[in-house]
Amino acid sequence: MAIVVENVSKRFGSFQAVDQVNLEIKSGSLVALLGPSGSGKSTLLRLISGLEMPDSGNIWITGKNATHQNVQDREIGFVFQHYALFKHLTVRKNIAFGMEIRKMPKAKVKARVEELLKLVHLEGMGDRYPSQLSGGQRQRVALARALAVQPQVLLLDEPFGALDAKVRKDLRAWLRRLHDEVHVTTVFVTHDQEEAMEVADEIVVMNKGQVEQVGTPAEIYDNPTSAFVMSFIGPVNVLPSTSRIFQDGGFDSANPEIFLRPHDVIVETTSNGASAKARVTRVIHLGWEIQAELTLEDGQVVTAHLSRERFKELKLEPQQWVYVKPKDAKAFPLHYSI
């Protein structure tokens, strides 16, 4: 394992930021720490990096106990959300900075810088200053600088959070391709579920300072182990078990809330006897799919996602009556909170 976190806790005053976390991160993997604000994901990243010290527990990096090591001795590359580039240095000098501090031979530094400029697709921009680059280009410089010293672990704290949506999406794909080339163990913090699903090999879902679930994007989405995970990863309808849509679902009072993905809502224009009647209250065209907001006879609102083809077959219109039933719903006895 590249990183092992053993029973680590961290408190700031009365706030328990990280609470007895245990986690193993495989060598060469790309892992997302995902959760809402205040879930402990950034604090955990800072504990791994050495920017914060744990109150208890141990952190192992590539087989060595790094719990009390300083940042410099952990052989870690760190990329912040706001780049942290030196404004008075060129792109080339920014990338070379860490190597020059370590007094590496000039010829080796020069060769490494050119190699990294090519790797991050910034050839020909080495003599520019950060102010002459776009946000996406500045973040790529920050990544190149972190990789320059050939770290054992690369840590990214919401690296694309300051960028607009299109640039952020482009950089996600680029980061995935970059990781597949360099194979550095990478951990990145995000609160964006889509970003985590698109980029990571594994996702660590955090809530209230603890790890809720660890798994591949498919495992997290298809087999959530708690109501919190299902409600946080992807859109979901949360309905009482008494809802008419579940009349044949076999749910009881032990399952007060039922979770139903919008794409698991079956919509028909005729009743088959096991469906609930609903009125189409709104139709939203999302491009690749259609979102229909449906109001059941008891006033509960259900969101359904339909393919464009299915929407055309049904010919849905606002105020139209339809019949709905669940294809796959999940129940969790314990109450959840975000």
Structural description of this entry:
It is a single chain. The chain starts with a strand and ends in a 7-residue tail after the last strand. It has helices at 41-49, 91-101, 106-119, 135-148, 165-182, 193-199, 217-222, 227-232, 308-314, and strands spanning 3-12, 15-25, 30-34, 56-61, 64-65, 76-79, 153-157, 185-190, 202-207, 210-215, 237-240, 257-260, 265-268, 276-285, 289-296, 301-307, 321-326, 329-331. Helix 2 crosses helix 3, helix 2 packs parallel to helix 4 and helix 3 (106-119) crosses helix 4. The protein is elongated. The relative contact order is 0.12. It is 27% helix and 32% strand. The protein has a six-stranded mixed β-sheet with strand order 6-7-8-3-9-10, with helices on both faces. Strands 13-17-14-15-16 form a five-stranded antiparallel β-sheet. Strands 2-1-4-5 form a four-stranded antiparallel β-sheet, covered by helices on one side.
